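Per your request, structure below.
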């Protein structure tokens, strides 16, 4: 099943959409946060009449598990260039995510440019460390849906040899050749192992409290170059800042995530 099909929503009534959390897009039974956010994006773009999310902020209330869900969208303002709406993704057990989104048509985006950064330097994909796939039965199911290759310097945690720097860099694309659209970028910003896996700190599940994604453009076909870093771990929380660059070398997405730090056993 393609990502487009796995994140499809269907209008049940004005402002209400039905969807299905599909097995396989999860880590230890909990659906990937970017995958769930993509469902919300499909509902919000339909409800606002603007085809692309430009910014989305989501607060995660409970884990999402396979099964039917609903997305309730409330448009706040629909203008000529942007539209803004709130949305709530819910299962039969209650709300899972509350989000606010601004949508637009990125094909019409134009203006002056200043980019004071470069894509992360990465070895070719074939020289990086592949995550998951059919040959890796121990990997989370989600890794069978995306083709993720880690920079060798950032993959030591897989062998119990963390780099000591809270950083993860690598290549990203969907498996089976499905082309990434702006909504697919919401999965890319939440698809890599937590940066804390490479720090000298307790390692474990890092539940997302809040995720903000900025979609800066429509990616060209090909691999994405991604880099995620953490600078501050305080009070039981960490931030994770992300950059996503497409195959043409353009910055096409940014993210900031606030997550809980694993507690020592």
């Amino acid at each position: 099943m393609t990502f487009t099909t796995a994140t499809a929503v269907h209008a049940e009534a004005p402002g209400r959409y039905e969807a299905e959390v599909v097995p396989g897009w999860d880590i230890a039974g909990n659906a990937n946060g970017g995958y769930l956010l993509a469902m919300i994006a499909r509902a919000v773009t339909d409800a606002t009449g603007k085809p692309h999310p430009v910014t989305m902020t989501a607060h995660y209330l409970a884990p999402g598990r396979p099964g039917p869900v609903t997305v309730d969208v409330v448009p706040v303002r629909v203008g000529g260039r942007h539209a803004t709406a709130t949305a709530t993704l819910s299962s039969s057990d209650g709300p899972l995510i509350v989000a606010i989104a601004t949508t637009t048509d990125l094909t019409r985006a134009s203006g002056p440019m200043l980019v004071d950064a470069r894509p992360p330097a990465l070895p070719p994909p074939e020289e990086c460390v592949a995550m998951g796939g059919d040959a890796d039965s121990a990997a989370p199911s989600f890794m069978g849906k995306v083709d993720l290759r880690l920079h060798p310097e950032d993959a030591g945690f897989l062998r119990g040899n963390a780099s000591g720097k809270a950083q993860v860099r690598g290549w990203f694309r969907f498996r089976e050749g499905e082309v990434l659209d702006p909504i697919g970028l919401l999965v890319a910003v939440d698809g890599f192992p937590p940066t804390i896996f490479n720090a000298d700190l307790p390692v474990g599940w890092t539940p997302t409290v809040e995720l903000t994604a900025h979609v800066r453009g429509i990616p060209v076909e090909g691999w994405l170059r991604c880099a995620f870093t953490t600078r501050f771990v305080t009070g039981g929380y960490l931030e994770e800042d992300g950059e996503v660059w497409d195959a043409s070398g353009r910055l096409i997405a940014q993210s900031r995530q606030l997550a809980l730090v694993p507690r020592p056993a």
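DSSP finds three helices and 16 strands in the chain.

Regards,
D.
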